[in-house]
Amino acid sequence: MSKKVLVLVESKNGKLRNVSFEALTVAQQLAEGGKVTAALFGTGVTEFIPEVSKYGPNEVYVLEDEALSIYTTDAHTQALCQLIEEVQAEVILMGHTAIGKDLAPRVAARLDAGLVSDCTEVELENGIIVFTRPIYAGKAFQRKVFNQGKVFATLRANNFEIQEKPVQAEVIPYQPVIKDLRTIVKEIVRKATGGVDLSEAKVIISGGRGVKSKEGFKPIQELAEVLGGAVGASRGACDAEYCDYSLQIGQTGKVVTPDLYIACGISGAIQHLAGMSNSKVIVAINKDPEAPIFQVADYGIIGDLFEVVPLLTEEFKKVLVSC
Length: 323
Ligand code: FAD
Description:
Elements: E1 5-9, E2 11-12, E3 15-16, H1 18-31, E4 36-42, H2 49-52, E5 59-64, H3 73-87, E6 91-95, H4 98-110, E7 114-119, E8 121-125, E9 128-135, E10 140-144, E11 151-155, E12 170-173, E13 203-207, H5 218-227, E14 230-233, H6 235-239, E15 260-264, H7 270-276, E16 281-286, H8 293-296, E17 299-302, H9 305-322
Parallel strand pairs: 1-4, 1-6, 4-5, 5-12, 6-11, 7-11, 13-14, 13-15, 15-16, 16-17
Antiparallel strand pairs: 2-3, 8-9, 9-10
The chain binds flavin-adenine dinucleotide (FAD).
The site of flavin-adenine dinucleotide (FAD) has 27 residues, from helix 6, helix 7, strand 16 and helix 9.
């Protein structure tokens, strides 16, 4: 049965997020010939219309409003609730990003609708949408279906294939009524973590307690630079103050799914695995051959990270320069 699917398209630092393209591709499959609506919120977002149109929406709603220029829960909740009503959306998809995690439950609760968060798979079985999400820190998977009402889902980044389908989408400006805001953002102070965004990175080099100090992260940063990747960390390294908590990967940190994840001096606790075990290729460098990280690694190097990582950096430099 055809469905009306709405996708909240997100941008960050002037760029659309890949997970929104994944959501638009999923929306095509779920709509089964029904309407796919993409929604752009903020100011200056019309510039994204050509890019959004590459992923097959029937229409793009543009909510240009100063109140939506910076994310706040109350302004976005009001706008999204009105838009859902306007387009009569039955399925609402967004990325499992900081915004998606905050907004989806809020709006779902307000509309008395169901929500599945952090989906890693979405399928149609005889016209019924089946959502799969990891539970118990990735130890098991839950499959969920809804019998009635609207359905919200947040999708974990890098888990869905992106398929381009260029279209001439109808562009519809829409002005929500946003009032009585209780939150005013006065300033955004960004943490100076630098480099590539962890959640979108294709290559991540992570350090654990084995790096032993702040300076111990230097070889990891150098390898990340050579590979054009981002630096991540275990909570062990963050707790020991070797690096900032914004780098933490795991159950209580970021969930990442890069093409390549290199874990250096990380033991492989279940809480860490919860954030990175879906990486495509995992390389572990650890001096303890019994470290649990080797059980999930595709390639394991038993050795001292302070010897292995600089060697890898040198070798990658040679190979990449000659390419
Ligand atoms: P360790 O377990 O101390 O491991 C260090 C490793 O480095 C060892 O395997 C050692 O052999 C190796 N090593 C040491 N020196 C070298 C060297 N020179 N060369 C090579 N290898 C070396 N953890 C997370 O990471 N993310 C989370 O989100 C998270 N959430 C948590 C939530 C809860 C509720 C709890 C209870 C815990 C959580 N943890 C999380 C913590 C987790 O249980 C582990 O304590 C943590 O992951 C350990 O970090 P580590 O692997 O860096 O340190």
